[in-house]
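Slack export, channel: ligand-projects

TW: morning all. Re-posting the request from yesterday since it got buried. We need the structure predicted with the small molecule present, not the apo form. The ligand is flavin-adenine dinucleotide; the SMILES is in the block with the sequence. No rush, but it would help planning for next week.
GE: picking it up
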Amino acid sequence: MNALSLPPDFEARLSRNEPMSKHTSWHVGGPADLFFTPLDVTDISAFLQNLEAGTPVMWIGLGSNLLVRDGGIRGAVIETHGVFDELERRNDNEVWCGSGVACAKLAKQCIKWGLGPAEFFAGIPGTLGGALAMNAGAFGGETWRHVVSVAVIDRAGVRRERPAADYTVGYRHVAGPSDEWFLGALLRFELRPGVSSDDIRHLLAKRKATQPISEWSCGSVFTNPPGDHAARLIEASGLKGFRVGGARVSEMHANFIVNDGTASAADIEQLIRFVQQTVEQEHGVRLSKEVRIVGEVSHD
Ligand SMILES: Cc1cc2nc3c(=O)[nH]c(=O)nc-3n(C[C@H](O)[C@H](O)[C@H](O)COP(=O)(O)OP(=O)(O)OC[C@H]3O[C@@H](n4cnc5c(N)ncnc54)[C@H](O)[C@@H]3O)c2cc1C
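GE: finished. pasting the full token output, ligand included:
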């Protein structure tokens, strides 16, 4: 079967040449060949089995850590948000959370259950699946500190459970079996009867005062180098406000690059490279990217 031809049931529910700018928080990105929103685990399993071997597959959550190049994505993109959305308490301390659940929803539900510390999830504008892939963290909390086990599905559509010990985890880094994607995770928290939604409001107010969260961005572009802050180095290199096309280093937080509404992915990527080169020249530190850059360069 041709990679771009699928059984009629899937054909009817696929989107072809789907602009990825609709699915990323930077609002840039060219078309995905195939964009599929599964109904459930059985459906995604059948979809994967029907794709020709070798067709590239990428899963996305809310696209809040993704720079998709202007030439788009070859192969299939699978959307999880709103699909794998189970969120239930399994016992006193443990919660099952689907990979498509927004981290903010997980944070709020944990407050209702009197579990924590989970408030930090409210600061991550992505899904649990993205947080598992990135080991996302905020306000001193980190996703994988809470993972007991995960459910994954592989390229052949086979679902399995894995203990957290199957993964090597670090600061914004997770390495595990390749060609598998997260369906959900069993998370463990402490009993925190006193925790309230005011705790979340307080954290978010702090964030609003220091980060340009109302503008189009992907959050921090670079990870912090050991013992320092990427934002400090970028600011000390005189780059606040520096722009390439419609992309600009935020004046509010130098580790954010914002799209003024007219940026292309190429503008953003060029600015990322310029910031890296300038910081290296000025401070001798090579910044590593936190953002994931995917897809093809446009030749238009
Ligand atoms: C304003 C703003 C503030 C931010 N603040 C923070 C912060 O404080 N801390 C922080 O850590 N991040 C922060 N981020 C970045 C981002 O929200 C996180 O990295 C988040 O975890 C990404 O989740 P997502 O669902 O949007 O993933 P996406 O951006 O859709 O994907 C990110 C990566 O995860 C992979 N992925 C997604 N879902 C799955 C899955 N189910 N299985 C396997 N792989 C998957 C994708 O292929 C991709 O490689 C911020 C972003 C913005 C826009």
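GE: first-pass observations. The pocket of flavin-adenine dinucleotide is lined by residues 25, 58-66, 80, 99, 123-127, 129-131, 133-134, 136-138, 181-182, 213, 217-219, 292 (CB under 6 Å). The mean pLDDT is 96.
TW: perfect, thank you
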